[in-house]
Every structure is written in structure tokens, then in C-alpha cells.
Amino acid sequence: MTVGLAVFDYIPVLLFALTGILLMRDLYNKLSKGAFALMAAGVIMVLAAGVYKATWKLVYTLGVADLYLLNNAFLPIQAAGFLLLGIGLVAGSFFPQGKGKVYAAAPLAAVPQERGAMVFIVFMVLGYLGFCGSMTRVAARMKKRGAVVLYVLSFALLMGMGYLGSREFGNDGGMNWIEEGVNTAAQLCLLAATLSLHKAGLSQKESL
Q1: Which of 146, 147, 145, 181 shows the shortest CA–CA distance to 161?
Q2: Fewer CB under 10 Å: which end of the chain, C or N?
């Protein structure tokens, strides 16, 4: 891991931040209060997790300190964030503002530590699937085929990045750059698709 790679890690975080801001702006007047609260909380948590991870990498590679708590917090916070984001958008798709209510799920029971990582990964996959699936549905209703393709591609790329992240590459800098490149491409697709819907009138009530 190099300083350049650590700095590069902030790019997908910034791209996701732009996507999240666009979505919150355009969907505020269309989602139920509960659905929007879940979506907004999810966006904030995913951003916080990304900043934590990138900051840990940067501080560590600069030799300042090993802020391991930031690294340890990344997976659970990001997984929970994507899950909330996915639930919020799925609920919002079926229950637009004024047509239904959204209820938060009860807390899950504690799981053994060795199974905890897999639980978080499942949460992340389900959340991102709900996110991209809901937005793909919206894009199809708005007849934006390019956005449909980009949302599907973003999901596929993020799953590929997750696969690469699960492999042990050690100090293989080339593979680490590929992993971050795939993540950045996934976020670029997400932002491009959301921008396309934004320009096509996503903020209008009839878009959902």
C-alpha cells in the first residue's frame, strides 16, 4: 500500500457523495418520511465508512499512526449503511410519499464473531442490490435505457471489487490498484446513471 493508493481511495468516496447528494435532493419530495430517513442515514453511514477507511490508509502509509479502529469500523458501518439505503429505496419505490409507512426492523441477535464478517457482507450485497435494483426500476419507468445499463454495470463491478477484496494479495500493489480502479468505475457508473435521471426530471413527482 502506497500513499498514492491511499489518496486515490478518496475518489470513489467523493463520487458516492455526489450520487448521494443528488438522490437525496431529487427524492426528498417523493419518498415517505420513513423511507427518506432510511436512505439518508444509509448514505451518511456509507460515506463515513469510506472516509474512515481512506483516512486509515493515508495515515498508516505516511507512518503517522495505525488508527486500526477506523479500519475495523469500515465493514460494519458500510454494510449497515448500504442495507439502510437499499431498504429506504425499495420501500420508497413501493410506498411513495403519502401512500404508506415504513417501519424499521427489530435489532438482530448477536452472532458469533467468526460469522460476523459474512453477515456484514450479506448485508452489503443485499443493500446494494436493493439500491441498484430500485434505481434500475425508476430508470426503466423513465425510459432511460442507458441509466438501466449503468446501474446494472455498477452492481456487477462492485461485486467484482468485493471478490477482489476477499482475496489475499499481500503487498501486490498492482492488484490493489486494480481493486480500487474497479471500485472507482462502479461509482462512476452510479453517478453517471443518477445524473442522467436527474437531467431527465427525477425530481418531478411523477418519476416514481
Answers
A1: 181
A2: N
Domain of 72, in residue numbers:
3-102+114-207
Cβ proximity of 32 and 103 under 8 Å: no
Q: How many domains does the chain have?
A: 1
Tens of pLDDT, residues 125-169: 899 999 999 999 999 999 999 999 999 999 999 888 877 766 655
Q: Which of 10, 51, 43, 13 is closest to 25 using CA atoms?
A: 43
Residue 42 placed within a domain: yes
Residue 109 domain-assigned (yes or no): no
Give this prediction's pTM.
0.82
Percent of the chain with pLDDT over 70: 83
Burial class (CB in 10 A: 0-12, 13-18, 19+), 147: buried
Beta bridge partners of 96: 31
> Is the pLDDT score of 105 beyond 70?
no
